[in-house]
Design brief:
Helices cover 58% and strands 17% of the residues. It is of the alpha+beta class. It folds into three domains: 63 residues; 49 residues; 66 residues, Nucleotide Exchange Factor Grpe, Chain A, domain 2, CATH 2.30.22.10. Strand 4 and strand 5 form a beta hairpin. The longest helix is centred in the N-terminal third of the chain and has 62 residues. The model has no long low-confidence stretch (mean pLDDT 84).
Length: 190
């Protein structure tokens, strides 16, 4: 019986699958090497990510600690400047105990008040006078109304506590008494 080409393949064809198999093995080895390289690179990036994340958390904690510390001691300069005012008050009280007609005490306390107001001004606090001014509900708080024919209605007659501003913003409104028209004038206006 005669062999056909199928049964007896030429030598060239049988070598080709071996070469293909070898090439496939080489390609597989190259891909595995690339995969190992990429896995090592990914691991390095993950380690870097973990270190950066830990550093960020440490930074956050440090900033929170510093912020809390800053808030805790934020008033230190103000308080340091107020201590001489307290010292002057203590001196005034001590001086009053030593005798006299009380005039030295009044002078001492007046100096302390002036010193205290100067310290407040240094930190942006200013006093706003209200007496004789028109009533402004954004800066004044009316405690009472009194009939007064001499002043225009809604004029501040008396100031019980002054208003204070902190850098232009109202810190405390003035407590005031406001003028109103006498009862007889009200009826005649109606």
């Amino acid at each position: 019986m005669e062999k056909t080409d199928r049964e007896n393949p030429p030598v060239e064809q049988s070598v080709e699958p071996a070469v293909q198999a070898a090439a496939a093995v080489d390609e597989k080895t190259a891909l595995l090497a690339k995969l190992a390289e990429k896995e090592a690179e990914a691991k390095a990036h993950y380690d870097l990510f973990l270190r950066e994340r830990a550093e960020l958390e440490n930074f956050k904690r440090r900033m929170q600690r510093e912020q809390a510390e800053s808030l805790r001691f934020a008033n230190e300069p103000l308080l340091r400047d107020l201590l001489p005012v307290v010292d002057n008050l203590e001196r005034a009280v001590e001086h009053a105990r030593s005798g006299g007609n009380g005039q030295p005490l009044v002078e001492g306390v007046t100096l302390v008040v002036r010193s205290f107001l100067d310290t407040l001004e240094k930190y942006g606090v200013s006093r706003v006078a209200a007496k004789g001014e028109p009533f402004d509900p954004s800066r004044h708080e009316a405690m009472a109304q009194v009939e007064n024919a001499e002043l225009a209605p809604n004029t501040v007659v008396d100031e019980h506590c002054p208003a204070y501003l902190l850098h232009g913003r109202l810190l405390r409104p003035a407590l005031v008494t406001v003028a109103r028209a006498p009862a007889g004038e009200k009826k005649s206006e109606e």
